[in-house]
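Suppose a classmate hands you a notebook page containing two proteins, each written out with its sequence and a corresponding row of structure tokens. How would you begin to make sense of it? This section walks through that situation. The first entry is reproduced here exactly as it would appear on such a page.
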Amino acid sequence: MLEHERRCFAAATGRDPAELQFRNLVDGVPALDLVVERGALLIGGAGDFSVAAPEHPFFEPTADLLRRLVRRRFPIFGSCFGYQLLVEALGGRVEHDPACREVGSFNVTLTDEGRRDELFGRLPERFVAQMGHLDRATELPPGVPNLATSRRCPHQALRVPEAPIWATQFHPELDHDTNLDRCVAYAKQYVAEDSDRPATPSPEASTILRHFLELAVDGGR
């Protein structure tokens, strides 16, 4: 799944994989200067870890790195675990809530703030997104608006005001096929036939990471 994650992010960003430097946080949190040299930070999923039970040594150093980058207004995009970690790092709350699990493909609706946002405003008001989570944000950090919602989870996306920093509970790096791969790999932890949805195409959500890099790194080209 580690290699799968790398392929998915490379494809969703539309970048040559050689442009992307991957780091497994289990092996150590990168230094601030190393991250800043790269131009942007993408934080993906973590099927074996939960922000609601931050027991691994990399949790707090990563949260501290995120806070320092936010103060610099450095470009960040967090997906699923990355979204939850950013929420906690900035003073919000994430809870383990299997009753509100979303595994498969679900409809997401933009809020008023989302429709006005320069990144999310490019999307239709309602679109399909790929999901795979048992934890969810129950409270966003102070002053951070919610950009999108779903029926089971009111908080689906955020942006740090006046900074090129976005994050989503859903997985914009996944499509129909790659989400099916995830469902198979994590079947024992995540899949429950009575509550999950078959994976369906999500073409609009799949544009988010490419547009993020255009806005935050390439100057809006």
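The notebook's second entry, a different protein, reads as follows.
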Amino acid sequence: MQPMPLVIRSLEVALDVAVLLFAVSVHESAHGWMAARWGDTTARDLGRITLNPLKHVDPIGSLLVPAVLAISGMPVFGWAKPVPVVPARFRDPRRGSMEVSAAGPLSNLALAGGALLGLLLLKSAVPGVRELVLASLTQGQLPIGAGPVGLVVAILSMTLVINIVLAVFNLIPVPPLDGSGIVMGLLPPPVAASYRRMGRYGLLVVFALLWLGAFDIILRPILVGVLRLVIG
């Protein structure tokens, strides 16, 4: 019986879930903030423009699913309660809906960019960080036991990967994902209306894409490119 590996693994799972909660809180707050800019204050009035994860948490999508994935050693993924948006209140419903849809994934890309910058700066300033980052991003061995620097590398690595996964997944142009809101704003209204009706089958399409590995085909080259940038 080796308690230390168990303790470290438990800390890894806890950090994974904590980073995800922060990422989805930023994502949903970005939707609400952009909606308020366009005239719909529903999310703001409900207190949903906040980084307090308790306002956004979905017990299954924000806690159970990511914890199971983390324990299984798989990439952590999850979701929060969607922020309520009323496009009819927007000054320009078409453009407003596009920007509200884009705000969530863009906020995750901004978090990923910040984590990437942090890893690059840390790698250039602290000897041995490159190896810690390489082990973290390629082997899933988060260097939590490597002292304070290892803990920072672990958090930044988690932040980088989780936010890239969230951004890319949400940009899939299938209703009800954010990518569909962007596409609908670019389509002629009659075509957009037909496209919106796909939402009845959207989740089935999304699950089919995941099952067929289509999401991995899209995501893997992005993660590989980011890894090369970090350790190159």
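A careful reader of the second entry would note: The first helix runs from residue 3 to 37.
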